[in-house]
Design goal:
The protein contains 12 helices and no strands. The protein has helices spanning 2-13, 22-29, 34-47, 56-71, 74-86, 92-99, 106-126, 135-159, 167-172, 180-193, 200-223, 229-253. Belongs to the CobS family. One of its GO terms (biological process) is cobalamin biosynthetic process. Its EC number is 2.7.8.26.
Length: 254
């Protein structure tokens, strides 16, 4: 069941050629713990450029490129749609109509552009800018940030209410808060690595995902009436960018 769910998660959350079909999709949407498990794969692949003997800017750029080669642009598109909805004046119905609009406006461009800049600057820190971050810690923070971002998506799936019928409701409508225990358990390997890698910085990066998710959930309930697929994707992008910076800052200060 879990292996099928992870395969379904890889097929849904990444561009990796893992195959899979209806049974894997069904297993994934009923298994929130599969989200952070997929995060281990994505985070591990994205961190590979940090292990190479490259100049810091090059390693940071390759980290960013690898992220989107592995995950595609679906989540980034969700962030852009949410940015457009956030600047619209009107009720939840008006904002939901903007979410479904295929055109990207100024709000979406600004949200996506700022998030990418923030992520790129965080990647520069991960690559060891100024010698402040060790190689091991940089890789561990990158991994924790990705696992945490996916745990944030799982948090929304378990605690959110569907904003409308669609792909998001197929996930949110199938789960409840009881699924969070398995999500926490699936994140424990990152916590176990913390004492020998990045210490508190790894834990700080990990918990950013659920925290960002709760903030986005609160906004979504007020402005959209619940959680949509775009909200899930936006949470992933915002949580990752936030976690990278929180991890690097925590390492620098402690």
């Amino acid at each position: 069941m879990v292996l099928n769910a992870v395969r379904g998660g890889l097929g849904f959350l990444t561009r990796l050629p893992v195959g899979g079909g209806e049974s894997e999709w069904d297993a994934f949407r009923r298994t929130p713990a599969a989200f952070p498990l997929v995060g281990y794969v994505v985070g591990g692949l994205a961190a590979l450029p940090l292990l190479l003997p490259l100049p810091i800017p090059t390693a940071a750029a390759l980290y960013l490129v690898t992220i989107y080669l592995v995950t595609g642009v679906t989540h980034a598109d969700g962030l852009a749609d949410l940015g457009d909805a956030a600047v619209v004046h009107g009720d939840a119905e008006r904002r939901l109509s903007v979410l479904k609009d295929s055109q990207t406006g100024v709000g979406g461009l600004l949200a996506l552009g700022l998030t990418l800049v923030v992520l790129a600057l965080g990647a520069f820190g991960l690559a060891g800018a100024g010698g402040r971050l060790t190689l091991t810690a940089g890789v561990a923070i990158a991994l924790a940030a990705e696992v945490g971002a996916k745990a944030g998506m799982a948090t929304l799936v378990c605690l959110g209410d569907p904003a409308h019928e669609g792909l998001g409701s197929a996930l949110v409508g199938e789960n409840d808060p009881s699924g969070l225990l398995a999500v926490v358990v699936s994140c424990l390997p990152v916590v176990a690595l913390a004492p020998v890698t990045g210490g508190p910085a790894v834990v700080a990066a990990l918990v950013c995902g659920p925290i960002v998710a709760l903030l986005v959930r609160s906004w979504g309930r007020q402005r959209l009436g619940g959680v949509s697929g775009d909200v899930l994707g936006a949470t992933n992008e915002l949580a990752r960018a936030t976690a990278i910076h929180v991890g690097v800052v925590t390492w620098t200060l402690l």
